[in-house]
Q: What sequence folds into this?
């Protein structure tokens, strides 16, 4: 049963075709990634979903058209979008405040999550006082506490160094196993997509269309060693091949 | 501070040893001495100037704030109004000051107007550009959270404008005292401007300079206040600087 479904979505900015033809679906408690080269139009897709821009085609949530924008999604932008003037605690409660929840109640709801997000003790800090990885976790915290139907994550770890990024990916995979969010993740990191996702849509360069849908049949928790890791590497190699050779010889499809 | 001291020293030496008469170029020591002797008159004349400065500044601050919001919500207004404001900045103060005094008399009103005229535009521009500097992603995120325009303005655009606002405030405040003095120069019962004019007419450059010193001190104090205010209003700025250069983890 798919929650989010896009059918033949297109978007052009002036004369520039950005999204050519996007059809995809995300099921309940499914973690789906969109993998594509830089500038393909990935963030644009989220702009359509959050109602910042309007495109053509059908966008359905639980079978109903997505016209009441934004009530279904908790959106995490490509930059962390933390407000520099708010302390981390108040950044985390932002979404709840906008929903009309009183500050005190919002704080009570957010406070217990700080430990889980590795931010305990930093509630009163300003974003500028945090490291890159902590800022991303704070942004993620602000996103998930909104308790919306679905998470939209735009390259949450794109700006981090490789070491921190790997640590964050493992952390997110663990978090996801606990919470089972329905999530759509944008990334251009093949390893990240394979490590975190149940399914991956591979996008072409601009104008973006979906060139392949790949299931990731690896067991969870995802591990970095053993048989599963070898399978993951094979999958990564295959995806890289698809991205780097736009017209591959037909052969090994996954579904 | 050192540079100001050095300048005063050179001036003192020039005035003492070059043979220029003190009625032309008085030494700083003489200016200070005379300022002390005439301090009652100076304070008496500084008060109306301070009053005009602060009142004019308060007026222009409120006007700039109200208009900046209006312009932010109705973009076409910006295109309609900005040319008028820009032209208002090209009016030469020397010409406009006597006219305003002629129209509105010797009272407080023309002084307030002139101070407001010279300080309004820098603050308006600072605020409007500050709102524009809001990160697009923050706006998109707030909209996705369900925030309306007003909510976005209060939560994101207004705080984003604070650094710009304070930059504009610092520029404006240095114009404010000068604006008030110009207005008084064009006609007033009391004030530093009219004091300078009278001192000049009585061939007392030392007293003119003493009044200049008072107005400079006034500007410095106001400038210092804006810096202090900024620190209080934007605690995150200092917090960020103190802990810059952290490791990538934790
Ligand atoms: N508001 C806009 N107006 C005009 N062009 C836009 C706008 N937003 C995006 N574009 C264009 O759309 C294209 C895709 O942009 P988008 O941000 O979606 O890429 P992306 O896939 O997210 O890239 P990256 O991985 O680098 O974040 C770019 O060529 C960009 O110039
Ligand atoms: Mg992007």
A:
């Amino acid at each position: 049963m798919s929650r989010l479904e896009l059918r033949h979505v297109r978007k052009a900015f002036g004369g520039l075709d950005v999204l050519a033809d996007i059809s995809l679906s995300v099921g309940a408690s499914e973690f789906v990634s969109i993998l594509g080269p830089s500038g393909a139009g990935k963030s644009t897709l989220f702009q359509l979903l959050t109602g910042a821009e309007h495109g053509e085609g059908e966008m359905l949530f639980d079978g109903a058209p997505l016209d009441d924008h934004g009530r279904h999604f908790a959106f995490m932008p490509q930059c962390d979008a933390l407000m520099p003037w708010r302390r981390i605690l108040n950044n985390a409660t932002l979404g709840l405040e906008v929903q009309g929840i009183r500050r005190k109640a919002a704080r009570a709801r957010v406070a217990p999550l700080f430990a889980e997000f590795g931010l305990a003790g930093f509630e009163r800090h300003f974003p500028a006082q945090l490291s890159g990885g902590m800022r991303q976790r704070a942004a993620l915290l602000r996103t998930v506490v909104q308790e919306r139907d679905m998470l939209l994550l735009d390259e949450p770890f794109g700006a981090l160094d490789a070491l921190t990024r790997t640590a964050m990916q493992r952390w997110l995979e663990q978090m996801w196993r606990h919470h089972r969010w329905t999530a759509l993740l944008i990334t251009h990191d093949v390893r990240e997509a394979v490590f975190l996702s149940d399914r991956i849509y591979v996008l072409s360069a601009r104008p973006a269309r979906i060139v392949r849908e790949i299931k990731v049949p690896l067991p969870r928790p995802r591990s970095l060693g053993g048989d599963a890791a070898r399978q993951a590497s094979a999958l990564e190699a295959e995806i890289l091949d698809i991205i780097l050779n736009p017209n591959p010889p037909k052969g090994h499809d996954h579904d | 501070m050192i540079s100001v001291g050095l300048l005063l020293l050179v001036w003192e030496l020039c005035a003492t040893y070059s043979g220029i008469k003190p009625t032309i170029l008085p030494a700083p020591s003489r200016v200070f001495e005379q300022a002390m002797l005439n301090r009652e008159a100076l304070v008496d004349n500084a008060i109306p100037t301070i009053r005009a400065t602060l009142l004019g500044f308060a007026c222009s601050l409120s006007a700039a704030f109200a208009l900046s919001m209006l312009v932010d919500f109705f973009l076409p207004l910006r295109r309609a109004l900005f040319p008028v404001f820009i032209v208002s900045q090209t009016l030469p103060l020397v010409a406009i000051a006597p006219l305003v005094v002629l129209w509105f008399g010797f009272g407080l009103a023309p002084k307030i107007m002139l101070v407001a005229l010279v300080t309004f535009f820098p603050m308006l521009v600072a605020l409007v550009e500050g709102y524009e500097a809001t990160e697009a992603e923050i706006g998109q995120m707030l909209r996705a959270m369900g925030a309306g325009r007003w909510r976005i303005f209060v939560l994101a655009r207004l705080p984003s404008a604070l650094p710009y606002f304070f930059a504009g405030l610092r520029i404006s405040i240095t114009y404010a005292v000068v604006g008030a003095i110009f207005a008084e120069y064009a006609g007033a019962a009391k004030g530093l401007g009219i004091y300078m004019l009278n001192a000049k007419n009585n061939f007392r450059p030392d007293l003119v300079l003493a009044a200049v010193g008072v107005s400079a001190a006034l500007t410095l104090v106001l400038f210092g206040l804006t810096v202090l205010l900024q620190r209080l209003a934007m605690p995150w700025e200092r917090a960020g600087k103190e802990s810059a250069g952290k490791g990538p983890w934790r």
